[in-house]
Amino acid sequence: MSAEDEHLDDSMDSEEGEEGVNELSNGKPPALATLEIPFNSNREAGVACNSLRVDPEPKRSGSSKKLTVKDNILCVEVRSPDVRQLRTAVSSFMDLVHLVSKTIDQFGPPHQQAKKHCS
């Protein structure tokens, strides 16, 4: 893994509302789904991660998601209080993944922009 990959990993973690789903009030662990979504490049996976992490789960759902990028793979962990809510959260998330991947396909692969330095 290159230094750039490690930087992408660190900057693309996204955790939302975790306090409600680490352990339920009845002591049961939350329902958990782990997804690995491949993209054509690390850059595309990073664009997808940045696009998807801005949409937090609604508070009423009790769900949370954690997004990370490993090479060209978008890794997603979704936690919910029960399997019904987990199914809804994963289904909604996959709809957004589909939209993001279609957008990336439509506009072509993202280009690395040169950093502008102030003089």
What does this structure look like?
The protein is α+β, with helices and mostly antiparallel strands. The chain has a single domain (3-106), classed as TATA-Binding Protein, CATH 3.30.310.50. The protein is 38% helix and 21% strand. It contains three helices and four strands, in the order αββαββα. It has helices spanning 3-11, 42-52, 83-107, and strands at residues 14-15, 31-38, 64-70, 73-80. Strands 1-3-4-2 form a four-stranded antiparallel sheet. A hairpin with a 2-residue loop joins strand 3 and strand 4 (73-80). Helix 2 (42-52) packs across helix 3 (83-107). The radius of gyration is 16 Å and the shape is elongated. The N and C termini lie far apart (33 Å).
Architecture blueprint of SSEs:
Elements: H1 3-11, E1 14-15, E2 31-38, H2 42-52, E3 64-70, E4 73-80, H3 83-107
Helix pairs in contact: 2-3
Protein name: L antigen family member 3
Family: Belongs to the CTAG/PCC1 family.
Biased composition (Acidic residues): 1-21
Q: Mind describing the biggest β-sheet?
A: 4 strands, antiparallel
From N to C, what is the helix and strand string?
Answer: HEEHEEH
Please name the CATH architecture.
2-Layer Sandwich
The backbone outline, from C-alpha atoms, is elongated
Unreliable spans are: 1-20, 114-119
Question: What is the number of domains?
Answer: 1
Question: What is the quaternary state of this protein?
Answer: single chain
Q: Structural class of the secondary structure composition? A: alpha+beta
Q: Can you say what the CATH homologous superfamily is?
A: Alpha-D-phosphohexomutase, C-terminal domain
The CATH topology name reads: TATA-Binding Protein
How many beta-strand segments?
4
Mean pLDDT: 78
Residues in helices, as a percent range? 25-40%
Separation of termini? Answer: 33 Å
Assess the beta-strand content as a share of residues. Answer: 15-25%
Query: How are the strands of the largest sheet arranged?
Result: 1-3-4-2
Cα-based radius of gyration, to the nearest Å = 16 Å
Given the structure, what is the number of helices? 3
The CATH class name reads Alpha Beta
